[in-house]
Amino acid sequence: MKTKSVPRRPADRATLARARGPHAPSDPVSIRRVRHGDLDQIIAIDATVTGLEKRNYWKSVYRRYGAAGPAERQFLVADAKGRVVGFIIGEVRDWEFGSAPCGWVFGIDVEPGSRLAGIGARLLEAICASFRSADVRKVRTMLARDNKLVLSFFRSQGMMAGPFIPLEMDLDA
Ligand SMILES: CC(C)(COP(=O)(O)OP(=O)(O)OC[C@H]1O[C@@H](n2cnc3c(N)ncnc32)[C@H](O)[C@@H]1OP(=O)(O)O)[C@@H](O)C(=O)NCCC(=O)NCCS
Predict the structure, then answer these.
(1) Do residues 119 and 86 make contact, with C-beta atoms less than 8 angstroms apart?
(2) How many whole angstroms separate alpha carbon 120 and alpha carbon 141?
(3) Rounded CA gap, 173 and 169, in Å?
(4) What pLDDT, in 10s, does the model give residues 126-156?
């Protein structure tokens, strides 16, 4: 009798990534904390993705989340033999919006030429590991409704719609 293959559930990916453990020294991509010398490459990746070069913004993000920051603030890069090919930024926030302490992912980018090779998943897994070590058990993010790529990515990693909704209004009306 032909057996039906069972589709892998999205949440299984995160479990598999954890189970893979540390990567071998021959692995061409490593995930590490950002360094000041990475900023130009990060600014260039962000400009490629968003079409805007925001040098002052990235300098300020580096000051807040950069190398010397506390464990609760994470700015990680994917380093392919000395070249930055992606990054992720996030932070543990306590009791905001009435929520118990949780990790927030604010930004993630992988340069277009390095996508679909598992780098985004490894960046997310690395930041989740640091959130776990900061003793939180939940990770959240926010994304534009029409950003199907980022939605597909986060869904594939096991993230689901949460209990909060964003609200906004124009201040110059
Ligand atoms: C989203 C993003 C980070 C994914 O990075 P990546 O390294 O390509 O992701 P991975 O290779 O780890 O992919 C993991 C899973 O995500 C999903 N995924 C990734 N790219 C996808 C695509 N183009 N279409 C559909 N699903 C996709 C897949 O399920 C994939 O698993 P699979 O390859 O086994 O099918 C990357 O595409 C990116 O930087 N996009 C732009 C991000 C952006 O707009 N940032 C600004 C707002 S924060």
Answers:
(1) yes
(2) 14
(3) 9
(4) 999 999 999 999 999 999 999 999 999 999 9
| Mean pLDDT score, 104-115 | 96
Which residues have a Cβ under 8 Å from the Cβ of 27 and sit 6 or more positions away? Answer: none
CB 105 within 8 A of CB 164: no
Structural tokens at position 82: 């000395």
CA distance 7 to 38: 39
172 Cα: distance to centroid of ligand 1 (angstroms)? 36
Higher confidence at residue 71 or residue 16?
Answer: 71
Name every protein residue with a CB atom under 6 angstroms from any ligand 1 atom. Answer: 49, 107-110, 115-121, 147, 149-150, 152-153, 156
Q: What is the pLDDT of residue 26?
A: 61
